[in-house]
Amino acid sequence: MTERTRTGPRAAFRRWRYRRPFWGGLLLALGGGEILLTEQASLKVVLHIGMQGLAGYLLPTLMVLLGLLILFNPAQRLFYSLTGVLLSLGTWLTSNLGGFFLGLLLGATGSCLAFGWLPDQEPRRRRPRKAELRTAAAPAAGAGEAT
């Protein structure tokens, strides 16, 4: 049976996704979108309309924009993620307690994931445990005493 080569749109998307902080950007954009949706809630649900109304829409819109920028321009992910976490925390005051906490948590988590993403990093090697080191050293110590 021949080996399947990974071609097609799904494989191309997978390769594109691995070269950028995909989940961080996606969560930041979803957090901003969720906060924008809570701005449209009925007045019985709205807890805090926001400072003059403009900041309540401006901060989550910028969160969505920063999430998309993280996805399509990952070279500047550090600046975008730091700005995204500050905007996420700012929605606590301006947008219904950060979209009833959900949008704030999504935005902060996505920003942290994007900040911690490292491109083309070598996989970590597993360090031996202390118990494995002791068992490996014990026969060597016993062999030295026999002579």
- Largest sheet, strands/sense/barrel: none
Quaternary structure classification: single chain
Global geometry: extended
Number of DSSP E strands: 0
Contiguous runs where pLDDT drops below 50 for at least 5 residues: none
Secondary structure: helix percent: 55-70%
Number of domains: 1
- Report the portion of residues in β strands: under 5%
What is the straight-line distance between the termini?
A: 58 Å
Region (Disordered): 125-147
InterPro entries: DUF6114
Biased composition (Low complexity): 134-147
Protein name: Integral membrane protein
What's the short story on this structure?
It is built from 7 helices and no strands. Helix 2 packs antiparallel against helix 3, helix 2 runs parallel beside helix 4 and helix 3 runs antiparallel to helix 4.
Task: Report on this structure.
With 147 residues, the chain is mainly alpha-helical. The chain has one domain. Helix content is 69%, strand content 0%. Helix 2 packs antiparallel against helix 6 (102-116). The termini are far apart. The model has no long low-confidence stretch (mean pLDDT 82). It comes from Streptomyces actuosus. Residues 134-147 have a biased composition (Low complexity).
What attributes characterize this protein structure?
147 residues; mainly alpha; transmembrane
